[in-house]
Amino acid sequence: MASNKLTINNLRPEKGGDPDKYRNALKPSSAELVDQAIQYDTERRTAQTSLEQLRHQVSDLQTHVIAPKKKAGEEVPTETVGQLKQWKSDINRLSDEVKEWEKKRNEVLAKMNDLLAGVDLYESTSITKDSPAAPTNDASNNCEQEDTSTHANTNGVQILKRLESTEAAAIRHQSSAEPSLPLLSPEQIKTIPPERILNLNVGVLGHVDTGKTSLVKTLSSVLSTAALDKSKQSRARGITLDLGFSAFLLPLPDHLKNETIGDDVNSSSGSSSENSSEPQSQKSELQQKYDLLQVTLVDCPGHASLIRTIIGGAQIIDMVLLVVDATKGMQTQTAECLVIAEMTTRNLIVVLNKVDLFPEDEREERIRIAEKKMRAALRGTKFENAIMVGISACVGGEKVAAIGGLSGESSHLAGTQNIHGLLEILQSHMRAPNRDVKPSSDRFHFAVDHCFPIKGQGTVLTGTCLSGSARPNDMIEFPTLATQKKIKGLQMFRRKANVVQQGDRAGICVSNFDAKLMERGIIASPGTVKLIRGAIAVVRKVRFFKGALHSGAKFHISVGHTTVMASVTFWGAREIAQQAELASEEAENPKTNNKSNQQITLGHSSLGGSADLAGLPRLKFDWNQDFVHQDDYLDTLPTDTLEAKPKSSDDILPPLHWARIEFLTPVYCPMDSLVIGSRLDTEVNANACRLAFSGRLVARYDAKTDDKRLRTYTNKEKIGRVCRLGDPFRRNDDNLIVRYEVFGTDLFKKETNMSQFVGLIVETERGDKGSIQSSFGTSGKFRVNFPAGTDVKEGDPLYLRFKRYANDPKKAIHQDTELPAARTGSRVDPPVKKKKNKQKNGVHTDVAAEEDIPDSATSEERFGDIEKLKGDVLANGKHTMAIVSGLFSMEDDIGKYNGRKVVSLDTEEEGVVDGSFGKMGKCKVSFKDGISAAPGSGVRMQPI
Fold first, then answer.
1. What backbone torsions phi and psi does residue 466 show, to the nearest 5 degrees?
2. Which of 311, 654, 716, 891 could form a disulfide with 541 if both were Cys (CB 3.0 to 4.6 A apart)?
């Protein structure tokens, strides 16, 4: 049993093992060895985890505490040194524990191997090439109308033969012990109409040289002429330069048969689809429409300079295999591929390739460490719980498998490890793809990735149907070429098809078309794809992008297979957040039926690359909505935008924004398309994410006609103060003494034309609102009416808040606030002093003794400011007089206030009013003992 040597993975269910199989194979007296091995391995793994944590803590302490202090010449604290020694001691202890538990585990495994010697555990599950379930070479029906590589790996038998190869003998015990996938015979495939085969597009993404193409070669049973780096340049350079397409077919998995199409479209964004409101009768279970499942592998380049091709390929996929070099872990392009996957799909499997490079005695532990590092890298993404599997797509060298044997150059087939484990995981974790419930020919969009002529037939366009459907004799449009052609024929799986629908991988044949005119792009229903020079989009920043997004900056914008430069301006974060908040409240309270807020929805399902999967809501842009001006993209919203709520996982996402995208080169694309903004001018070798934001095109934008339609504004605020109060009233509803009329100053200059400000609303600090009625005097003062009254005091501030639109040539003032309803009151009459009747020279004369002084002047305090100091200087160095402004207005008779006490707010020195000073309401205040307060300081005139 040398080739079937038992390892701990055979006993670990999470690694595909089956401990019960070995319990049953052993004698009852020895069955407990299985549990002992599992227990010892669990103890070893627990000790190993603690060991790694301690090592990490020691590294952090040395790097961030001890090393900086030594570099600065400072002494390391004694307690820090003691902590370090303790941790190192614990590390030595745990290392010994790990070795001890591993030794015990291996001893038990050795006993089990001795007891199982000569027992063939795999006879019942192994499949050879003679198995009746295995397909023959006739199964190489192509999913496209391209030629098939006759020397390629053309059926599932080759996969099994590799597992039986000499190179794979060392790992046969892993693959054979696992259930084999049901492979299809040619007879089975031929009996199924193409329309009954469901196509699932799986993108194979990852850093360059991680073995993506080798994995595709290992898995595929159907190859196109564009598969496996067949171009001369790719073979010369040894890397993938273009998209490659290949496939394998399976029976429809049981767990998919009862799933419905289109009912899980919006699971990634947490919103309900419009389709969810459709009757169940309009939804079809997969088993009612399909009999077979074809998995189309989209092999994407990994080189950093080919990011445009990767973005284009990722937008036609349903799920992702993220291939990672297990010996290197997360690399720069791995991170970028992860970001692209987050935008374009909802299902991802991490494939840790090249595990054969780990020493056999350390392989299990090294794979576990690699998984742990990848799990940490995925934390915070929507794939943080993604399934991971360790494999070797090509034991002994990736280039041999990727290139060798394509054209009969070599008959050598390299060995593999755990490919069956990957296939099992892939099959069990497939999810129902997003598809239109009722595809329409009116919204047919087809992503073309290759174009070539066939003599005597016409030109074939191969690609993926993104939406809608098409049939022979339908007219299709080539938007970039401004021409239309009739569909001559359709093929799927190298067989004639009557219709292609969303998600299908197909070949479309047209006549009288030069294949050299088009390499890749979009074909569509006539009139559905327009040339656009600019667009309004709802966008979200990629949280891994470290730079700021500046309005007016230029970005590389990718739409499908097209990437062009564009200038982008951001705004509207606050308004979208408020809109989303209202929509969320309505979802929680379905009784509310405010249709004006029901604008955040998700529409029909669509293939990968959908803005729905990127978490971008389907918003309708309102040209009449006002938006506060933003200089740049806001990484976080102001705290006053929304009410404080407990943080959720969505709070870590950057906020949504509106963006104006002005393409420097016009592009052909439909509205609702996913766009990806990048900074591809960043240094390729820099360890930084170049993908900046994703977006959904919402509306067309033409700078010439639409620039003035955008209602962006800037908030403005001017502050004045109350200089005089009107008559007091007792408000009827609460008996509060209020003023319905006050007089203000400091908002306008005396030469200001007040007519343009009449009717504007001002506010007090307490929120009382009044409207400006007219000017008051000639010094810029104004009269304000408060319909609900106000208890404001003299000297209190008055706020004039308004907004000014950026595109308004008149720079007019706009206000959204409204006056409150009127609240009436009864006037409080001031006390009337009786006139004294004096007689002079026999003539009676009426004299009003202080009757002209208003009640407010005697009952309320007034405040002013010292403008300058005058008068004699006393021995103590103080001036005896100060000139004060703000206590009186121009209309006041200051002489009637002579003798009123005035107190300095800073020094509490007391003086008295001593007459007017000029004609602007200023007065003289005498200080018997002098005043030391500085000019500009405040004073208070006390009431009587």
1. -85, -35
2. 654
